[in-house]
Amino acid sequence: MASSLDTFRNTLKDIRQSLRDRFVAGEPANILVRTHSDRIDALLRQVWRQIRHGFSSSEPTRLALIAVGGYGRGELHPGSDIDLLLLGERTDESVRQGIGEFIAMLWDIGLEVGHSVRTLRECETEARADITIATNLMEARLIEGSEVLFDALRECARPDNIWPGRAFFEAKWSEQQARHHKFHDTTNNLEPNVKEGPGGLRDIQMIGWVAKRHFGADTLQDLVEHDFLTESEYQSLIKGQDFLWDVRFALHALAGRREDRLLFDYQRILAEKFGYRDDGRHLAVEHFMKQYYCTIGELSRLNEMLLELFQEAILYPDSAEAIPLGRRFQARNGFLEVVNENIFKHYPFALLELFLILQQHPTLSGVRATTIRLIRDHRYLINDTFRSDIRVRSLFIEILRQPHGITGALRRMHRYGILGAYLPLFEAIIGQMQYDLFHVYTVDEHTLFVIGNLRTFAAIHRQKNEQNEKFALCAKVFAEIPKQELLYIAGLFHDIAKGRGGDHSRLGAADAQEFCLQHDFSRYDAMLVAWLVENHLLLSMTSQRKDIYDPDVINHFAAEVGDRTHLDYLYLLTVADIRGTNPELWNDWKHILLRDLYEATLLALRRGPENSVQQTDRIAETKEEALQILRQEGILKDEGRKDRIEALWQSAGADYFLRYRPNEIAWHTDAITDSQNRTAPIVLVREGRAGLDIFVYMRDRDRLFQTSTTLIDQLNLSIQDARIVTADNGMTFNSYVVLAVSGHTVVHDSTRYDEREIRETLIRQLRHPDEAISPVSRLPRRQLRHFTTDTTILFHDNDANHRTIMEVSTGDRPGLLSQIAATLTRCEIRLHKARIATFGERAEDIFFITDKDNRPLAEPIRECLRMKIIEELA
């Protein structure tokens, strides 16, 4: 037995090495997966025959060794499980013992086996209860053993016995919808799943299963003979499958195991393996991933069309009476169709009219598959003549002006290839990815998400959903803008120039203005849309990079925006853009920043430049509002407290009242003036507007900021904002807005955070801030390993506040802020404010700093600080 085991192991080793060598030599996976299956068949037969002779039973038992699942189809990738069904007339103890020895030997050889042991009756019972088991039995293939048993199995799995065509189709369609939902119903995920994701191999298998179950088709080629596929569609399907097989085969070979996720770990390597190269505008990996996204996009469209055809044939075999919907369209069984197959040929503009009809009849379930095919076949009609047709232009704008169905219409136009054909600039960004962790969707998918987000604001307003606090302001503003279609056009064009080289905002602005003028918008409207596209990053950059609670910053921003109309449109586009870039990017902190900036700018615009808020006015207003809060809480009744409050505020200085809100000042003041211990640190923790607010009041020390940031990081909290104000009496007000490291607010994160524990930890350590503290040891995210971000440091003068602004751009990592804080301490730099921002793998942090004498940094100090930080982060 030992010598046989060694022989089998060597055989398996030879099989795997041969497959790797042939793949490296360029042999396609569509040959290798079948070769692999055949050679594993032969190996299993040898093992089976050896073990079968050893079965001890009082009477012979018929057994069958059957391949199921992907192995049953004869498609075996390097890391795929070998799924087996061991079928017996009966499964007594001796049979199970023999089968156990067989399976044990397979594992000893090195095969990863998934198996079940059943009788015919058990197979039928299990298959009736589970559509997945029924599907596996459909693909069963006899490797060795009783043909009589195998034929009986095929009989019991027939659709006239279990899972008839209609029930099977409905169950598998529901299964596909649930599977797609796990991947956010998009083909263009950052690390897509080649097998399970939308447009992946499972979608092709879905077509094959339904075809086999209902039509008796053994291959996809048979669907051509059944008139469900044209020859060109069949070739597209096979070409896409072959590409995905190559990718999956390479993934398994690289990982040394089953791996169906196209992770960052493998994307660059695969791009090189498949011959893609960097050019002046795009990396090789971006070219490769564009090919991938375009392939699964086409497969997804074919899947949709074929399932629509199957639905019509299986669920609606008896054609219902057509209901006219104008001269060119009609509804049948709840689906839209053309009245005859020559409609698009005679009336090309109907290629857009169809989507408007769908919007105007929301009870329709979709488009009939025969009409989808006609749309695909007539896309060639969309040329310059088509685009210049006044009817076509009017239809496109009318689609954007409809009260309902705009997102659905644009997504359907995209799936059918109409949107890219009508807007060639959009065609250029289809499948275009950016190789980073910030942009998790391709540019085209992101664009459609942005428009979907804009439509969400309309829905919230329409439903008067006051519970949706994060978007209540967006809904209110959306309802007040005069022309919503201008916002959608800005959304369509805001990233349309990405990948062309140059400033995509400026290039896109020119494209947007030209589009608007061609579609008969006024020059004012065209210039508004162009301004939105060119400045679509202005609001977010201002909120993240500047002190938006400084009146001078607000006044300058208000001057850039100009009027409320521009501000309203820009605010809506910004929120929609951030939410459409990365689902993890939008959080309470960004919501509050953008809302505060919007509201402060709106107030500045209402006052006008001649009545702009000055610092002295702002300080007086803030003090009065804080006093009002303290008065309402009864704190001012105590004369002793009043004196302490006056002394505290006198020492705090003007900066304190410019950078804190009245309710924060009241919170601090109450705790500080009520404290009996004048030497111990005062630490306050509460759930704030945008995260957890942490406030520290104590005597200023050199390592205080470094110690605080390290402790907060060790508590698995991520600092979003830091404000440091040193009072005239040597005390310091340190405030932090923190989120969980996941980016979620602490109360909504899966990790449990105890405010009391946070407070006690900080107090305990801050009593001795000069003592050494352990550095942050949390491991970085897996994806960060695949990106190298150079550290760049820029300095700017902040003359109005007599400070220096330092911008640090570097690779994100745990403990980054505490590393920078340590360097500031060593260089005797005073920090007054920090704004922390992370964009995928890149951190972009802003620090408002001075030297130890509170003066802006001189050039020699700047250069020294730059070198020290780069050295620390290397």
Quick gist of this model?
Residues 693-781, 805-874 form the ACT domain. The protein has 874 residues and is an alpha+beta fold.
Descriptors for this entry?
874 residues, alpha+beta, Beta Polymerase, domain 2, Four Helix Bundle (Hemerythrin (Met), subunit A), Hydrophobic Seed Protein, EC 2.7.7.59, ACT_dom, multifunctional enzyme
Polypeptide structure, described:
It comes from Candidatus Kentrum sp. MB. The protein has 874 residues and is an alpha+beta fold. The chain folds into five domains: 2-163, 2-Layer Sandwich (Beta Polymerase, domain 2), CATH 3.30.460.10; 164-318, Four Helix Bundle (Hemerythrin (Met), subunit A), CATH 1.20.120; 320-422, Hydrophobic Seed Protein (Orthogonal Bundle), CATH 1.10.110.30; 423-611, Orthogonal Bundle (Hypothetical protein af1432); 664-873, no CATH class. The chain is built from 38 helices and 17 strands. Strands 9, 10, 11, 12, 13, 14, 15, 16 and 17 form a nine-stranded antiparallel β-sheet that branches. Strands 3-2-1-4 form a four-stranded mixed β-sheet, with helices on both faces. A hairpin with a 4-residue loop joins strand 13 and strand 14 (803-811). It is globular, with a radius of gyration of 33 Å. The mean pLDDT is 88.
